[in-house]
Each structure stands twice: as C-alpha cells, then as structure tokens.
Amino acid sequence: MIVEVEAFARLHMGLFELGQHFGRRWGGVGVSIKQPSMRVTVNTEGSEKVEGVDVEEVERVVTTLSRSFGREFKGGISVDSGIPVHRGFGSRTQLRLALATAICKAMNVECEVHSIAEILGIGEVSSVGTHLFAYGGFVVQLPRQANRTGLGSFIRLEFPEDWWFVVAYPVDGRGLDEHEERRLFAALSPQEPLTCMEISHLILGYLLPTLLERDLTGFGECLSILQRLVGQYFASAQGGVFRMAEAVQLLRMAGAKGVGQSSWGPAVYGLFGDRLEAENAVSEVRKHLGDNWNVYATTTVNHGARVSVRP
C-alpha cells in the first residue's frame, strides 16, 4: 500500500490572551496558504528507509505511534518538503501530522487528526497549525483553561481565495525552534489586561466581521493593528515589533491592505486584493530586497491536507 499526504504551510497571524487574566491562555489566529507545501509518501512494501528529511524527526514520530498503538510500522518513508524549517510556516507541525496520518492509513488504524496531535504532543502553545492541517481556511484558536492540556476549541471560516498574500523571507534567516520558544515564554511577563482585552475586541468586533463580509480593506487594517499589538509584546525578544521591519515597510509601500509577521518569522506577508496586485508587489519588493530573499505570491487553501491511497 502507498499512502501520500500533501500538507500546506500556514501564516500565523498572532497569539492573544497572553496574560491568563480570566484563567485562560493561548489564543491564536492563522490561515492556510497554497505555497509552500510538502508531500509525505509511505510505502508498506518499500524498503525500510527514510528519504528527504531529518531522519531523527521521522524516527521519533514512528516510535511514538508504534508505542501508542502497540504495533510497529515497517516500510519506506519519503518526504518531499518545500516548507522551509524555522521560517514561520509551521513546517514541523505539518511534517509530523502528515507523516502520522500516512502511517495510520497504512496500518489501518483509525485515528483522527486531533487525537494524533495529542499523541505526538503537538499544540502546547498554538494549535492553529493542527486545525489548519485538518480543515484549512482561517482559524481562530480560542483560549483554553490554563490548567488544561489539549487543543481546545476553535472557530474556522472560509477565507476568500481571490485575496492574495505576498510572502517574503531571507534565504538564510531563521526563527525560533520549540525549545527557544519555551524559554522565551517562561521569561516574558504576562501581557497587560487592557492589551489582552483590546486584542480580543479586535478579533471579535473587527477581524471576524470583516472576513465574513469579505471587506478586504477592513480586514487588512485590523490585521495590521493586531500584528502591531502582538509584536509590541514580543518586541524585546525579537528586536522590534517585526524582525524584518524593512520588508514589512516595502510591502506597505507596494500597496498591501494589511501586513504582518508569521509566527517568529523571519517570514513576513502582505495582503492584496487580487493576483495582479500581488504579482506587481512581488516585482517591486524583490527589486529592493535582492537575491538573498524569497518573495512570492500565493493564495489560500480552504481544505485540509489531501490524502490519497493506492494499493
């Protein structure tokens, strides 16, 4: 049996409720994008080897699943990953979920995505990537009770596929890994109550309504405000509201309706009303940033990871 899983990158648009003022924490916002993406292939008849990715990471997933299910997986694993690591696209979450989904299919084990995430310990802080792997679109992860584990509740909406993002990141830059992120959160003070309330108000009273109404200008404006407020909280840890402030400013100057940084970056993005606007912005931004940056246009994905099975 051959199982293929195609998973997509995500743009993480910010965390909220970082103060636990209501006994809850870790809200988040994000959207699935078509590019970059990855493909994981599992072949139960293939030789037992791993190709195309960090072998240790794959072995950890295989070992964890084997222990959980009481069955050992045997077969070949190939990963064709176009999602760069530690750039702000959630590559590790997508790899682990795609691999685990493929293995479960190959072993005829019924296990839905959110159960897989809990088995693998995914989503301690943000579960946005897990929800997007399962459903795609636009997700708001709702803050969960501080003394509880698990992925918690979320809101999922369709995202207009005629809205485009321009994404830019330096070829050699990198963001934080999970261990660095954990240490940083432990060192940060709780977010001020008024800021927590302002961000929650923005999301409920502005971001969600403008998305439902397909109000590009309003959504983009709200996104920029949200990103500024979230970035101010992390500014001391990442060297400013945005790690790549020049690139964000170039996206604004190119006509972006909204701008932001995905997760810890260094990837940044701008929101545009159509493909032509986005492609023109790519040319303009690339001209200023040079060859050491990847700059491209992409739209969104309103479905989860794609799974195909062949005998």
TrEMBL record:
Annotated GHMP kinase C-terminal domain residues: 208-289
GO molecular function: ATP binding; beta-ribofuranosylaminobenzene 5'-phosphate synthase activity; kinase activity
Family note: Belongs to the beta-RFA-P synthase family.
Protein name: Beta-ribofuranosylaminobenzene 5'-phosphate synthase
Organism: Caldiarchaeum subterraneum
Recorded metabolic or biological pathway in which this protein acts: Cofactor biosynthesis; 5,6,7,8-tetrahydromethanopterin biosynthesis
Endpoints of the signal sequence: none
Recorded catalytic activity of this chain's protein: 5-phospho-alpha-D-ribose 1-diphosphate + 4-hydroxybenzoate + H(+) = 4-(beta-D-ribofuranosyl)phenol 5'-phosphate + CO2 + diphosphate
